[in-house]
Design goal:
Length: 169
Amino acid sequence: MHFSTFLAAALPVLATVATLNQSTPFNGSEYYSLGCPNSTKPFASQQEQLQAITNFDNLLVQKQFKAAYNTYAATNFISHVARIPGNGTALAIQYLVPALANTTLTILDVWVGLNAQGDVKSTTYFKGNSQARGLGVIVDFWRMIGTCLVETWEVGAPVTNSTNPIAYF
């Protein structure tokens, strides 16, 4: 076999491998077992993932919690959020509706990337202003499979006086 014949046969395979490397690592069993909605997909580019988490965050800002979770989060997503007593969209929505009723959220930054283990993670940095709690910061972390949100962590803190003039924002 000539090298040119071999190269012609190998190029389509190499192009496929390069395309696969640009998309999300896929854990098929978890995508399905956690109940990712039909509006998500198991494979996605980083740009598609960024668009998905940005859309999700914008729905939260608009207080459309059911739409956000039912469109982008797995029904049984894993939650490490201390204030939510378990996993899944039902508990998250049940908690968020009253907790954020009198809170204004502003998205300050959103990003998506791979961690050291090869998992896709998104991070959103919010400014929150609540009648009950005052000004605060919230950072949401999600692990994603494709465009589906499958695991979450959250940290928040009230804005307090600081000697740093650019603290928090």
